[in-house]
Amino acid sequence: MENSVKESIVLLSELIQNKCVNPPGNEMKSIQTIHRFLLEHDVESQIFESAPNRGNLVARIPGKEKGPRLMFGPAHVDVVPVENPNDWEVDPFSGTVKDGYVWGRGALDMLYIVVTQVQAFIKLQKENFQPKGDLTLLVVSDEEAGGIYGAEWMLKNHPEQVKTDFLVTEAGGLSIAPGKLAFMIGEKGGAWKRISFKGTPGHGSMPFDSDNAAHKAARAMIMIREYCDSKIPLTTEYLNYLAKGLDLGFIQRLMLTNKRLLPFTLRNLKKRDPQMARVVHSLTRMTLSPNIVQGGTKVNVIPATSYIDVDIRTLPGQDDKYVGIHLKKALGDLSEEAKIESLSVEAGGFTSYGNASLASSEFVTAMEKAVQQEQPDSVLVPFIMPGVSDCRFFRERGVGAYGFSLFDPETPMSHLASLAHGTDERISIKTIEFSQRVYYNLAKIFLG
């Protein structure tokens, strides 16, 4: 194992141990860790404090020409909470190294990208690499809570520091078939809503024909779930990318991309690979997931108010009007009395819309060549990420933004989907090694 990979493992473990759980974040601890690490390798960087104990880091290798410009990042150091630490094989904030993996919250999402981009940047700097356009390294806070103090804050407060034409961040290079690697050209949006109901309070001992607000919320949850699974409009645009990239035969392609056959395909896929079925389902529609329900004050009082918070993920082109129309259809006879509003920032809500970059371009070709230097004959397959990332802030400004790294080909995509934000989150050491190389390759190919 080369020294830079060993260093990356140590750095990754330290970032996990820093425990930058968002909220509240406290990401400055990890930002300072990376700043120190860069200085140890004679690389200057600049820290921008966005709030007390929170900040972002920028390093740059100036270009000898005006363009094109490339950014490593934005790569975020904040991580999500751990709900049940006792369910883990190891302490989730130990950064334990075992069985060829680095274990801990954030290892996969997305601290491995932070350390591999930092290492690739250091190597290029040590070689006195002179890129055509600027190569920027951006490490940020707050991605897990909307980017207010991270990528968005940098774009609003220091736009000159984060100017770029293209960027690579989380996550890509996932094996979906032999020689076929998914890379993220876009992402779904997040349009979280709170749906509130009113009822008539009364004594719990006399529930007959009561106007119970909690009953309405319960009905609404079931109706929304059923609408999402069987009635909402479908699109196969993003499955077409998948079918083409996988070189599927006529029958297989038809089963995946025909709207009428899609429900049957999903049922069969659910039996064989439930996690992949969830991914395919998410790529075919706006998803509606009612995840929080509240109502009532005391067990013997019929509740007068209730609400449900719904996680809504939109595909590119689906705006707030589209969300409203289909929520009302999902609620049916309850829609007239339901109050629908965007979830407040205080309640953890934010709104973004589905967005995507070009699926083919000179830059995409450069990414494919960078991968082929490590895994010959590999082909990149365009994919839409079900979740929300910091890419949206840059795509709004015309930047080509892509999820791109390189996983150990033995790691199945379904495995990764279950570990992100999940129990026993971990990243393989082989993936760390591959990703360092592929970021280095990309800079040399595209900016060299």
Describe the structure.
The protein has 448 residues and is α+β, with helices and mostly antiparallel strands. It has two domains: 3-187 and 354-447, 3-Layer(aba) Sandwich (Aminopeptidase); 203-342, Alpha-Beta Plaits, CATH 3.30.70. 37% of the residues lie in helices and 22% in strands. The chain has 14 helices and 20 strands. It has helices spanning 3-18, 28-40, 107-126, 151-157, 213-230, 237-245, 250-257, 262-272, 274-282, 320-331, 362-372, 391-395, 413-419, 429-447; strands spanning 46-51, 54-61, 70-76, 97-98, 101-103, 135-140, 166-169, 174-177, 180-187, 189-190, 193-198, 202-203, 287-295, 301-302, 305-314, 339-342, 355-356, 379-385, 400-403, 426-428. It has a six-stranded mixed beta sheet with strand order 1-2-6-3-7-19, sandwiched between helices. β1 (46-51) and β2 form a beta hairpin. α8 packs antiparallel against α9. The longest helix is centred in the N-terminal third of the chain and has 20 residues, at 107-126. The radius of gyration is 23 Å and the shape is globular. The model has no long low-confidence stretch (mean pLDDT 94).
